[in-house]
Amino acid sequence: MRARIALPILAVALLAACGTADEPAAAPAAPGALLSKRPLEHLDSGLAGAAASATYVRYESTSPAGKPIEVSGAVFLPKGDAPAGGWPVVAFAHGTSGVANKCAPTNSPTLFGSAPAVEALLAGQRAVVMTNYQGLDGPGDAPYLDTPSSGYDVLDSVRAAHAAGLPLAGDTVLVGVSQGGRAAESAAETAKAYAPELKIHGAVLLSPALELRFLDSAGTLVPLNAPDQYLVLPYVVAAVRYNDPGYRDDQVLHGKLLDIAPALESACTGEVTPDQVAVAAAAGPDAVRFVDADAAQPFADLQSRTNLPKTATTLPVYIGRGNADKLVDTAWSDAAVTDMCTLGTPVHDEVVPGGHSDPALGDRWLTWVSDLFAGNPFASTCPH
Questions:
Q1: What are the residue boundaries of the structural domains of the chain, listed by start?
Q2: Where is the signal peptide (predicted)?
Q3: pTM of the shown model
């Protein structure tokens, strides 16, 4: 049946093409243009109960190559009557959920672990706009760790949300977790040039992956210090491969870690097996080493091209992170914060007990969101 239907459709398409050969091709949609929307279903009961509505959106953004690309995401509205002017907007940039297309948070009832943060923001009477990022539930591969494009994804998701006809205010605060902290900081740095019409009050970055220093200044691999870093390395290799398609896992990964790399690269948050964790826990320096200088260079290029900050922003930035972070090493983040302060970005940096996923901030980050919306005094921790 499908083959018999396809032929007439193809004939119509060919006739249409013949009839319009001299007509100019349609211009691509502008960044942030809403391409489609529908209700987002199959949510976790907690998230479904916290949201008055959940809308899945597809919209236009800008790829690492500067080309138009389709991206997906979601808009969650809090319960209650919207205030005059609409709900204030939190642009939420999620932490790493994977690099496979299936790993888009909107494919998961719990948003691959982001549901509690979204629920907390909804409880505070904020609308939440969340991008999936390019390559997750969208065309092409995921440009994992690419800072410009992830920042564009965040900014364009807000534009698309406004185009969806929802009761949203113009006021926006950026919130990012881990990988999303990198995306939110990139959005803050590029907003003035890329999306000047958006009224952004500041950013809240939680355990942000701003600087990833897998290589030292001499181009030598830095020893890894935790199983989580070994587990995430296949994602990093995928990020290298996005710009260098011929790059192979065995140019840097070895032994049992190499054996499980394809499975890890295709896994989403929560899908890593105990056996894979055991391999990572047993891994040592021999599991991660470059076979030659040519294998090291793409890693160095990724690091220099994507690490943040790149430029100062006048937007106030709150940072909350743990003093025992074994995934985004605390020393790496120390360097990023120092660089932000040196550039002149107003930063309030709080280092608290805890690791990557559980810094002891409690609800303090929600207070920061409220302070930014209210325009309350900002206390920079940068040395003066």
A1: 34-211+309-374, 227-304
A2: 1-21
A3: 0.92
